[in-house]
Design brief:
Elements lengths: L14 E6 L3 E7 L10 E4 L6 H8 L10 E6 L8 E2 L6 E2 L1 H8 L3 E6 H11 L5 E3 L11 E6 L3 E9 L2 E6 L12 H7 L17 H14 L9 H10 L3 H25 L5 E3 L2 H5 L1 H4 L3 H7 L5 H6 L2 E4 L4 H11 L12 E3 L1
Helix pairs in contact: 3-12, 5-6, 5-7, 6-7, 7-10
Length: 341
């Protein structure tokens, strides 16, 4: 299968792969079609003015061979010759990268497109199951994950390979359902008067939810950092943090179930990113799965769909590496997302 703008996709090695999120950028170099990815380089986006500076400092200054191709997954919709990250001030300009970094070829993918590629490439030994039955071979899958934002992507098997379906599903509307939801939602900080999935189901969303729960009870929040909130919630040392995790996992279950219904994802739902990995005990507590399955009239279908937490620490890079080595195995459309000299 192909996904190119001019026939079968092929890349010139070495290939620089990169997963660029709102907080961290992760890079690695693949020397050839049969090579594994080299040692990952991880930097904070806040430490650099832009992606070019980060690549020079983290990769090029110490690389024995200059990469010819860059395949970068970015947390933003890819439109035009300037791509602005959604949760980071970086602006990616592929034409300037070609001119200033000595590259022949630049390909931009959505960050959760790379996570979808990882789900297709990784084995089940990197997955931790959160209920449901067994995945149906070659059935549709979905990937979502709370991180700096909320990423969502689909994965469809067609024409002999896997086709990732990127999108901006993290910005869907998210509304209250229970009486407690209504009490808490009244205190959430909103964007233009609405609550999106990303206003709750991400790092800053955890803090937003924690503050809202505290204020719904007439108090003030004691914690501010998402990592402190999740740690206190898992330890049971802060009642507000405990409820924050309960509501967070319930809402994540609702959204995951909605996306699974859209794709009829009998191949499974895959939760990626650091937050999901850190809160596995909360996800297994029961309310996530109950919310996921509560989709009448399709409860039976939902009970059969497995959910897995992706445990690989650099899943997106693993997905990009698989694509770089064997692009013909994936239906990735490169038209409008590939720049060459």
């Amino acid at each position: 299968m192909t996904g190119s703008d001019d026939g079968e996709v092929r890349f010139r090695f070495p290939v620089l792969i990169g997963d660029i999120g709102g907080t961290n950028a992760r890079f690695s170099i693949i020397d050839g079609e049969t090579s594994g990815a080299g040692e990952p380089r991880i930097v904070k986006t806040a430490d650099f003015a832009g992606v070019d500076e980060a690549i020079r400092a983290a990769v090029l200054d110490g690389a024995p061979r200059r990469p010819r191709t860059a395949i970068l997954a970015v947390a933003a919709p890819i439109e035009g010759d300037e791509v602005r990250l959604t949760n980071c001030p970086w602006v990616i300009r592929p034409r300037r990268m070609l001119a200033e970094l000595g590259l022949d070829d630049v390909v931009l993918l959505n960050d959760f497109e790379a996570q979808a590629l990882a789900v297709a490439a990784l084995g089940m030994d990197h997955m931790e199951k959160i209920g449901g039955g067994e995945p149906v071979a070659n059935a549709a899958r979905v990937v979502l994950g709370p991180g700096t934002g909320l990423g969502v992507a689909g994965l469809v098997h067609a024409f002999g390979g896997w086709v990732p379906v990127p999108g901006e599903g993290g910005h869907i509307d998210l509304g209250p359902r229970t009486r407690r939801d209504h009490e808490v939602f009244a205190h959430l900080e909103t964007l233009d008067g609405r609550v999106s999935g990303e206003d709750i189901l991400c790092g800053r969303g955890l803090t937003n939810l924690y503050r809202a729960i505290a204020r719904a009870g007439g108090g003030e929040p004691a914690l501010t950092a998402p990592s402190d909130i999740t740690a206190a919630g898992l330890a049971g040392s802060d009642a507000t943090a405990v409820e924050t995790l309960e509501i967070f996992t319930t809402l994540l279950g609702r959204v995951a179930g909605d996306v699974a219904l859209i794709f009829k994802a009998r191949g499974g739902v895959y939760l990626s990113g650091g937050i999901a990995q850190k809160i596995v005990p909360a996800l297994k507590a029961g309310n996530f799965r109950a919310a996921f399955e509560d989709k009448a009239p399709h409860n039976a279908l939902m009970r059969s769909i497995p959910v897995h937490v992706v445990g690989h620490p650099l899943a997106a890079l693993a997905g990009l590496a698989a694509y770089a080595r064997t692009p013909s195995g994936f239906g990735v459309e490169t038209a409008g997302r590939r720049w060459r000299t």
